[in-house]
Structure formats: C-alpha cells, structure tokens
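Service request form, structural biology core

Requester: graduate student, group of Dr. S.
Request type: structure prediction, single chain
Budget code: on file
Notes: please return the result as structure tokens.

Sequence provided:
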Amino acid sequence: MRYEHIKAFDIPDGWYKTIERIWTHGDSFYVGYGSEITETKKLSITLEIENPQNRPLIADKAPCDMKYVNSYALQYLWLGMKAEGETYTYGGRLREPLDQVELAIQRLVDEPRDRQVVMLVRRPEDLLKELAGMKHEPPCLTILDVELYEGQLHTTGYFRSWDGFAGLPANLAGIQIFLEAFVDEVNKRSGQSYTTGKMIFHCKNCHIYSRLNDIIEELISPEEDARRQISRKKE
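Core staff response, request fulfilled:
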C-alpha cells in the first residue's frame, strides 16, 4: 500500500494534486465488494490544506457546483436531512442519538483549550451488519476532530474510502461550510472571533475509477497544468 503526504494551498489545489498523485503513483486495485465493482487506482494519503477557506471552494473542472455543495453542507452535514432512498446522513449520525455538534460547540465555548473534541460518524453496529452479511455501505467519513489553536479552528478527519474525483471536492467544500457555521456558533456564544484554520484529512483508500481514465488524463495534462498555474498567478 503506497502512501503520499499531499500539501495544498486551498481546496481546488488539493483536488488537482490528489488526482495527479493517484494517477501517477497509485496502485491498481480491483474493488470486489462495495458500492461499485470495478478497477481503480488508489493511494493511502494525508491531504493537508493550508487555506481551505479560500474562495472559490470548487475548482472549475470539478464535477459539482456551489449550488450542490451548499445543499450538501446544509442538509447532509449540518441538519442531517435524508433524501429519498438514503439510510443515513453524516449530519444525522452526528446529531443522533447524541447531538455531537451541539456538545462540541458548547465544549469549545466552555473550554477552548480542550484537545479532546472529536465527533464520530461511524458506529460499532456498522461492522456488525457487515459480519452478518447484511447489505450495508458504512459511512466513508469516520471522524472529525476539531481543535482551537491561535484563534483558528483546525480540523483533522478520516475517510475509510474516498472517491478522489467526484467525492473529494464536494466533501471538502461542504465540510468547510459546515465548519464555518460551527465556528460562527462558537463565536456567538463565547464573544470571540475565531476563524476556520487548517484542514487535514487521512484516507487509506483514495481512489479513481477506471471509467474516468480519459477525463483524468485530460485533467492532469501539461496544458491543463500550465493553465492552472497562469490562473493562480492572476489571483
């Protein structure tokens, strides 16, 4: 299993770099069980994003837009509303049976130096369902660890599996919006002016599906990379 530590300036930069690193350094892996049975390329990664608050949150070539991301952040992460056919949402698991979001906010208001504020998405019964042979897709996002340091809320998380092309950009942009709402609530109750800080996510299986090979080749082409560099210099 190959591992890469990827440092990125912002979320779009993190998406591009992750795709490029999986494509050039990833292991070929056949998924025999899961949401899609297919060939992939995968890496075990740590993605470290220095400025996740930078706008735009979504790269212009990403397969999602801010309308989707805002809906995802509000309904799927913050409120935990389920769409038709969904058995759970990340927000639903964070809110029930204990409202971990509320507890985490209040804990940082009461004790901003606490380094033990962790919100859990995956549950022990997910493994029990798998062992029982039940049709069950456990959450990809497993934990969110939040910590206040030098006036910023830094976040560390873990994905057990991550679609690097389609899932990663929407997940990170949505989580950033969720964290901004989280910090706003801490500030309202504490009278402070915290901002969101660095974002670090680990994943043992960040992957690209083989059906996207042509799209990925075009995305990481030298011509496309040169275009991104020119665009970055203009910002």
